[in-house]
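Suppose you are handed a protein chain with no further information: no name, no annotation, nothing but its sequence. What can you learn? This example shows the usual starting point.
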Amino acid sequence: MNEFDYIKSGVLQDYCLGLLTEQEKKSVESMCRDYPEVARELELLQDVLKEYERTNNLSRQDELRIRVWQAVKKLWEEKS
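A reasonable first move is to predict its three-dimensional structure. Written in structure tokens, the prediction is:
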């Protein structure tokens, strides 16, 4: 399997998601050492996942903040 077929196989995505066995992880890491294109693709995937996680967490924080303020407003109105 060449480096481009390896990239298309989905194994790098599985690596990022923690779905591989220890032996499979070592194989990915070995391919990254041997093939710079594989290493770049893995880095890109990791960056995208980190950005998704960061964005998703911000959305949840914003949603929580809105719900808290709505609850505070409701309590304030009930007391008035």
